[in-house]
Specification:
Layout lengths: L3 E4 L2 E3 L11 H5 L2 E9 L2 E2 L2 H14 L7 H15 L4 E8 L16 E8 L5 H6 L1 E7 L14 H12 L4 E5 L5 E4 L3 E6 L2 E4 L10 H12 L4 E3 L4 H5 L3 E6 L3 E8 L2 E2 L7 H15 L1
Parallel strand pairs: 7-8, 7-14, 11-12
Antiparallel strand pairs: 1-2, 1-6, 3-4, 3-5, 5-6, 8-9, 10-11, 10-13, 13-14, 14-15
Helix pairs in contact: 6-8
The structure holds 4'-deoxy-4'-aminopyridoxal-5'-phosphate.
């Protein structure tokens, strides 16, 4: 089952795939991306990922890209890999041109992809829970657009790892909990799930959509509203969701235990519900 790369229509080994040095994704971070997972050989929520991709490209005024051709490319490259549990990284840049800030005239968006084995998270993460640190949200104001400009996320993630934690949670200067470096964040209080509303300050996660749907179907009330770090610290449970994160229980924030410091029941229920939905 080979891991594969796709570059503008050509599928081949990842080590041989290259892009021009004047790709605007490389020079300016002028590129958007998606990461799709497969379960049992099937692409999970592909249409939702494609819709978000189209929204990101529209928000950045990219030249038109056929979403049908992107869907075909993803399906074809994934099929060629034959990987049952794959992580598919797709990136589209505005194009290649001499380095200059203005959008180039008639640039042709560049489409690249990798299809790799997706390693399951260690079971201990779910059984014992994970720790997060808080970090001031020093990102730009359009976090709803899924661009490759991820340096603040990369730096915060590394700070978390250096501190012995799993991830960092971005908090606004006013103390509002936004999201983690590659996951959405939730608190649970007296059986209700609370999560940041969809604004320009967070990415609308596809897993977030699924989580809210399965929570409602399981009779778990959900509130989309702002909440503070103090509320998070006092919550019964704190959870992260994302395509690779799935649903993870957070048991410490800045070293302080959440609840009794053990993964809570809602997290387990929601993880099981997400897996059921994904493996259906
Ligand atoms: N927030 C950020 C900043 C992310 O990078 C991601 C992962 N792409 C998410 C949330 C979760 O999104 P999804 O559920 O679509 O993977």
């Amino acid at each position: 089952m080979p891991e594969l790369a796709y570059v503008n229509g050509k599928i081949g080994p990842i080590e041989e795939a290259v892009v021009p040095i004047e790709d605007r994704g490389y020079n300016f971070g002028d590129a958007v991306y998606e990461y799709v997972a497969t379960y049992n050989g099937r692409l999970f929520r592909l249409e939702e990922h494609l819709e978000r991709l189209a929204r990101s490209m529209t928000a950045l005024s990219f030249p038109p890209v056929s979403i049908d051709s992107i869907r075909e490319a993803i399906v074809e490259t994934h099929q060629a890999s034959g990987i049952e549990r794959a992580g598919i990284y797709l990136q589209i840049s505005r194009g290649v041109d001499r380095r200059d800030h203005p959008f180039p005239q008639d640039s042709v968006p560049q489409v690249v992809m990798t299809v790799r084995h997706l390693a399951e998270k260690p079971v201990s993460y779910r059984q014992r829970g994970i720790g997060v640190i808080t970090a001031t949200d020093f990102r730009w104001h359009r976090c709803d657009i899924k661009t490759v400009q991820l340096l603040p996320n990369v730096m915060a993630k590394q700070r978390a790892l250096d501190a012995g934690a799993f991830d960092a949670v971005f908090v606004s200067e006013e103390g509002v909990v936004r999201e983690a470096t590659s996951s959405n964040v939730y608190i649970a209080n007296q059986g209700t799930i609370v999560t940041h509303p969809l604004t320009e300050r967070i990415l609308g996660g596809i897993t977030r959509q699924v989580l809210l749907k399965v929570a409602q179907a399981s009779g778990i009330p959900v509130a989309e509203r702002f909440y503070t770090v103090e509320e998070m610290m006092a919550a019964d449970e704190v959870l992260l969701t994302g395509t690779t994160t799935e649903v993870l229980p957070v048991v410490t924030v800045d070293g302080v235990p959440i609840g009794d410091g053990q993964p809570g029941p809602l997290c387990k229920t929601l993880f099981d519900a997400l897996r059921k939905e994904a493996e259906r």
